[in-house]
């Protein structure tokens, strides 16, 4: 380990990181004083309101758009159409996402925007715009797309070893398929932008965006101007969850275009149903698989084909697919493996980033396999999982060594211990034999999640640290705040690096004119990247202040220590205040500000061969969940969840705990409650999202929280080479929720004969659970597992593997 990374990871004796502090905006959040983008409307005199003209066809050619009637609506100021775009008519970076489309590609596609003096005027104006279309055939499901060869993007393959021989020689073989549902982000704050233009034509866009630099680039290319003509600011987001990584750009561009054309501020904020019908969601996936196990129930070989539903355009579908393929292994060693991935194009919203970014969908494939086949192998599911966990010296299918694999088993054993798994498994069995109509299930599942952007170039960040003459500090960094606590952590990092109390450091909103060329705040890497940059900037200033203080303290500069707002000689012989040293630096004309920069070392990734070490490290965790399922309705209650999760040395324990709890609940929502239903009929509503409101789309609420919820961090988990020894926490905990689904599977199995394999739909809603337990009830007892594969194959509803292929 280089001294550089030790300096990055080592904590000074007196440090503000690691202390439990509330979210920097907690008081503002709970009192309603926190400003979100759309709250700024009242501060923008003369503001115009934008409303989309949405077309209710899944697929259609636009033959004409007539705006005359709209312009006669009182209060309508202007209608924006394709003809108004001075630059490039595209909302993305793949040139397949026209901002003003010539073709309607999904139900609810916005083809024009109306600007009005009031929201109501704009709404009435949009209703008066006449769009004539010629309907085209629409593709709604993955199956239809595959049949029609409607693909987009580049298919990818990861492979290692000899799958053919592995499968052929495996003692137990199974095959099957799984459908994996999408997920609506349902951030509390819907997509929003507010744009204005100054006297020199400089465009300023406030946007609820996870990726201000890309929003800036796209606004600039739509307007046909340069990046320095556009500034994007993000105050904070009321949740992003990946849904504001690529989706805000076009909306910001519409607001900016309106502002440029009218000279007035333009505000655009989607209503909930507009947001749900217009913006991308988690990718639904379909997977087929064949797997082989040896006599000890160890995985010998896996072959799978994953098909992602990208929706009408690509945006982030390719990297989402890459991450999915890189996470099929989850925490398990698979010596022979072949994973194929492809993306279909459908007439639906353009599916996008969502917490985990394909990782959860990849993991779902193998977790589903293990949960399904365990009874056929005659091994308890927890034992099957434990036996296949990565061990020392093993590497992933894409060739990255699994460093700290021992943490997986440590975490696993700790989770079993704190949850008293063994004892409670016996209690569950006793409960189940005493209750014919209610059954309990308990399950443990692991998480291993790679941290860094797969694309190496994105793993860089910048920061700006300003020290004023009075000793107060203002920091700015490239990351955005969406509730995850990034700003809180950055304040703690800056205070630690400067040796100051937290109260002396203030943070300014994220802006592209402060830190340029930033990456999206995504891939859970916000803290690793921006923390490195903030620390770098602070260190430059500290080095200068050491030079200033050294002669005053009578020691050499390396002997000067900054801590607790004091500047001391290391031997304690002399001491100055921070304020004195800052004032002296100013008088000596020593710069008190610095731009910091960080890039993650040691990454390499071949995106074509799908080989390399794309991740700086892996985040690990495990969860034990117990549920109770009602045999009459399939409704379930989560009785208890115990989590052990690896956050390295936590930078901010309260924040990290919130991330673990929130991620877990969001994952449980995806896996067991939230169900996007699209109209797949041939009727006039074909392609329509039927679940476009909270009334029909079931989100997790307090009622679905585990009744007992215990979260513990892995101890002595210092991570060298990462900011102050910490690990990223934003996404990994979402995947701890597989324990809920697997516990439901166990409970369903308890309704049937011993050894019954449960095929459970995903999402495992109460309805799906009811079907699974009904099937268990009517199942006959399977034959006991034999050493050959065919006996086991009969045990689950799976297609037998042909002997030759
Ligand atoms: N937590 C809250 N409260 N709100 C969010 O929108 N987004 C998640 C996660 N946690 C999110 C959240 C996602 S998708 C990511 S990638 C990370 O936070 C991004 O922030 P980080 O890189 O600072 O962890
Ligand atoms: Mo998170 S899905 O990487 O924004």
Question: What does this protein look like?
Answer:
- The chain contains 21 helices and 29 strands.
- Helix 15 packs parallel to helix 16 (526-553).
- The strands form 7 sheets. It has an 8-stranded mixed sheet, with helices on both faces.
- The protein is globular and about 85 Å long.
- It has 3 domains: 2-34 and 460-599, Aldehyde Oxidoreductase, domain 4, CATH 3.30.365; 37-138 and 185-278, Aldehyde Oxidoreductase, domain 4 (2-Layer Sandwich); 285-454 and 608-678 and 688-778, Aldehyde Oxidoreductase, domain 4, CATH 3.30.365.
- Residues 1-5 and 788-805 have low confidence and may be disordered.
- It has 805 residues and is α+β, with helices and mostly antiparallel strands.
- Bound molecules: ligand MTE and dioxothiomolybdenum(VI) ion.
């Amino acid at each position: 380990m280089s001294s550089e990374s030790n300096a990055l990871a080592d904590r000074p004796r007196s440090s503000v990181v690691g202390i439990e502090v509330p979210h920097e905006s907690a008081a503002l959040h709970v009192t309603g004083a926190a400003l979100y983008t759309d709250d700024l409307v009242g501060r923008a005199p003369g503001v115009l309101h934008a409303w989309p003209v949405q077309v209710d066809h899944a697929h259609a050619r636009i033959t004409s758009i007539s705006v005359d009637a709209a312009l006669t609506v009182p209060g309508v100021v202007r209608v924006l159409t394709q003809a108004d775009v001075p630059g490039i008519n595209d909302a993305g970076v793949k040139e397949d996402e026209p901002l003003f489309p010539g073709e309607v590609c999904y139900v609810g596609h916005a083809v024009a925007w109306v600007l009005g003096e009031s929201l109501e005027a704009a709404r009435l104006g949009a209703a008066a715009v006449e769009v004539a279309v010629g309907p085209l055939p629409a593709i709604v499901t993955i199956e239809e797309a595959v049949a029609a060869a409607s693909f987009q993007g580049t298919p990818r393959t990861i492979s290692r070893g000899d799958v053919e021989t592995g499968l052929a020689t495996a003692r137990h073989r199974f095959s099957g398929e799984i459908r994996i549902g999408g997920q609506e982000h349902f951030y509390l704050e819907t997509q929003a932008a507010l744009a204005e233009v100054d006297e020199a034509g400089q465009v300023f866009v406030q946007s609820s965006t996870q990726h201000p630099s890309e929003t800036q680039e796209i606004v600039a290319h739509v307007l046909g101007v340069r990046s320095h003509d556009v500034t994007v600011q993000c105050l904070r987001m009321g949740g992003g969850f990946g849904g504001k990584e690529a989706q805000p750009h076009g909306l910001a561009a519409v607001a900016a275009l309106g502002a440029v054309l009218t000279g007035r501020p333009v505000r655009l904020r989607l209503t909930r149903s507009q947001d749900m019908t217009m913006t991308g969601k988690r990718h639904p996936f379909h997977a087929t698989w064949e797997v082989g196990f040896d006599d000890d129930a160890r995985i010998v070989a896996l072959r799978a084909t994953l098909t992602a539903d990208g929706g009408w355009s690509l945006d982030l579908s390719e990297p989402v697919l890459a991450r999915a393929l890189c996470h099929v292994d989850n925490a398990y060693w698979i010596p022979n493996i072949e994973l194929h991935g492809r993306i279909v194009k459908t007439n639906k919203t353009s599916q996008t980033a969502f917490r985990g970014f394909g990782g959860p969908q990849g993991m779902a494939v193998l977790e589903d396999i293990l949960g399904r086949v365990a009874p056929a192998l005659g091994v308890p599911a927890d034992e099957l999982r434990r036996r296949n966990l990565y061990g020392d010296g093993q590497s992933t299918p894409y060739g990255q060594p699994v460093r700290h694999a021992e943490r997986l088993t440590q975490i696993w054993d700790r989770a079993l211990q704190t949850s008293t798994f063994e004892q409670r498994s016996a209690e569950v069995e006793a409960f189940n034999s005493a209750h014919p109509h209610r059954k309990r299930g308990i399950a443990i599942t692991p998480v291993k999640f790679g941290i860094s952007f797969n694309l190496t170039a994105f793993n860089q960040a910048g920061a700006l640290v300003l020290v004023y003459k009075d000793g107060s500090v203002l920091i700015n960094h490239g990351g955005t705040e969406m509730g995850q606590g990034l700003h809180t952590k950055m304040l703690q990092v800056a205070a630690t690096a400067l040796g100051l109390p937290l109260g002396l450091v203030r943070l300014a909103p994220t802006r592209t004119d402060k830190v340029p060329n930033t990456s999206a705040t995504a891939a859970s890497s916000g803290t690793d990247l921006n923390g490195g940059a903030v620390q770098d900037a602070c260190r430059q200033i500290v080095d200068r202040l050491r030079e200033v203080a050294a002669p005053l303290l009578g020691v050499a500069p390396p002997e000067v220590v900054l801590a607790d707002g004091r500047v001391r000689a290391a031997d304690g012989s002399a001491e100055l205040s921070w304020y004195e040293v800052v004032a002296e630096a100013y008088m000596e004309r020593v710069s008190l500000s610095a731009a910091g920069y960080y890039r993650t070392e040691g990454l390499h990734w071949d995106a074509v061969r799908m080989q390399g070490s794309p991740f700086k490290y892996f985040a690990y965790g495990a969860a034990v969940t117990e549920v109770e399922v009602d045999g009459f309705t399939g409704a379930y209650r989560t009785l208890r969840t115990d989590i052990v999760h690896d956050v390295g040395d936590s930078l901010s324990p309260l924040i990290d705990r919130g991330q673990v709890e929130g991620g877990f609940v969001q994952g449980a929502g995806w896996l067991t409650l939230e169900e996007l239903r699209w109209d797949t009929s041939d009727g006039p509503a074909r392609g329509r999202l039927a679940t476009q409101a909270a009334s029909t789309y079931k989100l997790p609420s307090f009622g679905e929280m585990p009744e007992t919820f215990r979260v513990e961090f892995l101890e002595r988990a210092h991570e060298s080479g990462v900011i102050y020894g910490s690990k990223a926490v934003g996404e990994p905990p979402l995947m701890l929720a597989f324990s809920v689904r697997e516990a439901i599977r166990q409970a369903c199995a308890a309704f049937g004969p011993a050894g019954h394999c449960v095929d459970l739909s995903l999402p495992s809603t109460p309805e799906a659970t009811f079907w699974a337990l009904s099937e268990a009830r009517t199942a006959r007892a399977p034959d006991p597992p034999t050493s050959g594969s065919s006996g086991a194959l009969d045990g689950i509803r799976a297609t037998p593997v042909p002997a030759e292929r």
